[in-house]
Amino acid sequence: MEPILGALVSRKEQVTDLLRAYVAQMPSGERLPSEPELARRLGVSRGTLREAVSALEAGGLLLRRHGIGTFVVKRRAEVQSGLERLRGIPNIIRSDGRTPGVSNQSVTRIQVPGSVGEHLRLPEGAEAILVTQTYLADRIPVVHALTYIPPMRELGEVFAYLEQACRRPEPIVLFDVLEAQFGQPVRYAVADVAAVGATAPMSTALHVEEGCPLLLLEETHYTADDVPVLHSLDYLRSDAFRMFVIRERKAPLAAPRPKDRMRASTVVSQASRTVVAGESTSVDTPAGAMEGETQHGT
């Protein structure tokens, strides 16, 4: 009986996570569909759904009113982060007060696609490492990441380390791995941001509908010596992850004061010369005019 009980508990947790992701897309105050309809949409049994609803109610995300329905009472704000600093997705999630996690974490050896090879300065058909991760914030999937790593030292050595790391429950922060394990600290990145629609694999990983708008953050990461060591494609759920940029306007140069302009004019007048037939001759400036300008400038 114990293995069966363990399976039931695991199923309850899975359905609770599924319901939490569903609720996260609803505005505060909206009523959930009826129990039969919600069970049908989520593809779960009504009994397990009731347990999941109770868990979210205890966590303050849902409110049940007898005879009326179940309502969303609190929708967590999106994970928010600026684009100015390179920290790694798990560190961004943690700094926002959430608990980072990961699912579908895997590593494979592949031949890099042409566009990725250009970013990593690899020839066509070159072998590289692909790390696939779906990052979680409070157990809700928020980012699906594909990261390509070019050959560093012996490719097999890097692959073996990452393969072992992928077996651990915590998410890998590749910035930390490159610096601590392989002496390749990332110093800066060139980023491109675009809006894309979720493909079938992305919709499965992020628990969204196919075609749902996502934010694509594509970056090539470099060492201080301008060597590319990572190329990443991070697909962010637009309803759960918000990126922003702090932009500054450079202060305009101060206009010269009238007194400064007068002094500059005096200096130019004193140094004025004209070139005639390749010879430099001084231009005579009336002494009175020069003195007058000098007097205005003091």
Automatic annotation (TrEMBL):
Residues 266-284 have a biased composition (Polar residues). SUPFAM superfamilies: Chorismate lyase-like, Winged helix' DNA-binding domain. Keywords: DNA-binding, Transcription, Transcription regulation. It holds the Pfam family GntR. Residues 9-75 form the HTH gntR-type domain. GO terms for biological process: negative regulation of DNA-templated transcription. InterPro entries: Bact_HTH_transcr_reg, Chorismate_lyase_/UTRA_dom_sf, Tscrpt_reg_HTH_GntR, UTRA, WH-like_DNA-bd_sf, WH_DNA-bd_sf. GO terms for molecular function: DNA binding; DNA-binding transcription factor activity. Residues 255-298 are annotated as: Disordered. PANTHER family: GNTR-FAMILY TRANSCRIPTIONAL REGULATOR, MANNOSYL-D-GLYCERATE TRANSPORT/METABOLISM SYSTEM REPRESSOR MNGR-RELATED. This is GntR family transcriptional regulator.
